Amino acid sequence: MTAAKLVLEPVSEAQFTEASYGFRPKRSAIDACEAVRVAANQRREWVFEAGIRDCFGTIDHDALMAQVARHVVARHVVDRPMLKLIRAWLRMGVLEGGVTCPAGAGTPQGSPISPLLANIALHVLDEAWQDEGRRLGVLVRYCDDFVVLSPTRQRAELVQQLAARVLERLGMRLRPEKSGITCLTRGGQGFDFLGFHHRKVESWKWRGRFYLQHWASATAMNVLRDKVRAATSRSRTERPVSAVVADLDPVLPGWAA
């Protein structure tokens, strides 16, 4: 799967748009947050935030393979054995209790190639924003989480309808609990995206002007505290300090970054 990813990734990267940030070379969540900040500070006060329900488990196989084939053909790399191999991975099923259940939808869970396949499938959403969605707002997508920043509430509502319509073609649906419209005007309620809370804050220099800032979300903070508590629990005081440090080392540098 990793070998296939190394072959397909450059072909797909040549076609992906600037709206996509997740699981792509030289792009990160920090870059996505910066794109959100820039768009919000250009008088786009309404945000449609959304997540896709079980993205990796609900992608329609036929729709996904159509997108993969389209990407390959667009770069004049027609490799039928590669397409057959990917389709075989998609159909190989899930082993549960010694019995293999056929997979009618979705990508191999936790596999190296799944994020790339998800990006290829969701590229249709990015394309929609280069066409019909351009007038509605700025799309920032990190794999199956995305936000669209719009100048008016009416356009944000149209964004929700367009996103739902495009995703339906892939067999996907928006997650109601993670989807909604937020107003940022003059320090409105703000929203969570990629582990950060984004909200407009009044400038200390120019009173009456508000600019978007972000800091770690409450959920992300709680997750970190739980990991630190687990590593330093009093019930584990018999462990040597070096063992505690070894548990914390993978957690803290990532958090700092």
Automatic annotation (TrEMBL):
PROSITE patterns, per the entry = RT_POL
Give the top-rank taxon of the lineage listed in the UniProt record for this protein: Bacteria
Annotated Reverse transcriptase domain ranges read 1-198
The record's section on InterPro entries has: DNA/RNA_pol_sf (IPR043502), GrpII_Intron_Splice-Mob/Def (IPR051083), RT_dom (IPR000477)
Q: Which SUPFAM superfamilies match?
A: DNA/RNA polymerases (SSF56672)
Q: Which CDD domains match?
A: RT_G2_intron
Residues spanning the signal sequence: none
Q: Which Pfam families match?
A: RVT_1
Full protein name? Reverse transcriptase domain-containing protein
* Taxonomic source organism: Streptomyces axinellae
